[in-house]
Amino acid sequence: MAEVLVLQHVAPETAGRIGDAVAAAGHRLRVVRSFAMEPVPKSLEAVSGLVVMGGPMGVYERDRFPYLRHELRLIEQALRSGRPVLGICLGSQLLAHALGADVRPGSAKEIGWHEITLQEAAATDLMLSDAPRAFTGFHWHGDVFDLPVGAVGLARSAQTAWQAFRYGQNAWGLLFHMEVTEPMVTAMVQAFPDELAEARLDGREIVARTATHLPTLERIGTRAFARWAELLS
């Protein structure tokens, strides 16, 4: 049984479907809740995989959130050792930064249910090869990143050029949220009302659209995360 370390930055953004896939593969999760001041491990000793979840903070706010520095060191360790890595939203931004790419605020926040278009390379990607070329994903981000040197771009949206990438054969960054469950979507809407107000979005509409779009996203995510879990040893 392998152990997967999950770095969680805010209460609503749990491992969700990722945790389900890891458990279904016979492995266990060890969750570190940075928002609850739980210390980030100094090394990945005895850990087979690393999952870095989302959050409202930015990669460039390391002085305000010092634990991000420790998380970046763990990501770098995982990349050097070839351990499976999965970065979601903020996690994808941290992964991109660790690989030398620029991470910065986007022109506008991308929140809610918006279409994802897979790029040609996704057709042979371990995680996304079974996914339809276009589907509706769940988004909640304000920052964007450049594609890291040596990485393969996998997906985009109308607003954001890089929604997913792979580095090597063991590290993936997903800016959009493929891991969410219906309770997670509701919890995020309830947790970040100021962001919704700033973006002039109706949280009730986002929750209402979940019933339409989540079943397809769940099928895609369940398969993708199961394949990622196959890399664990």
Structural description of this entry:
The protein is of the alpha/beta class. The chain has one domain (3-229): Class I glutamine amidotransferase (GATase) domain (Rossmann fold), CATH 3.40.50. It has helices spanning 17-24, 67-81, 90-98, 182-191, 193-198, 203-229, and strands at residues 3-8, 28-33, 49-52, 85-88, 103-118, 134-145, 152-156, 164-167, 171-174. Strands 2-1-3-4-9-8-7-5-6 form a nine-stranded mixed sheet, with helices on both faces. A hairpin with a 3-residue loop joins strand 8 (164-167) and strand 9. Helix 1 (17-24) runs parallel beside helix 6 and helix 4 (182-191) crosses helix 6. It starts with a strand and ends with a helix.
Structural class: alpha/beta
User: Main beta sheet: strand number and arrangement?
Assistant: 9 strands, mixed
How many β strands by DSSP? 9
Q: How do the strands of the widest beta sheet line up side by side? A: 2-1-3-4-9-8-7-5-6
- Low-confidence segments, given as residue ranges, are none
CATH C-level label: Alpha Beta
Report how far apart the termini are: 7 Å
Q: Whole-number radius of gyration? A: 16 Å
CATH topology: Rossmann fold
Question: How many structurally independent domains?
Answer: 1
Q: Helix content range of the residues, please?
A: 25-40%
Proportion of residues in extended strands: 25-35%
Number of helices: 6
Overall body shape: globular
Question: What is the overall pLDDT average?
Answer: 97
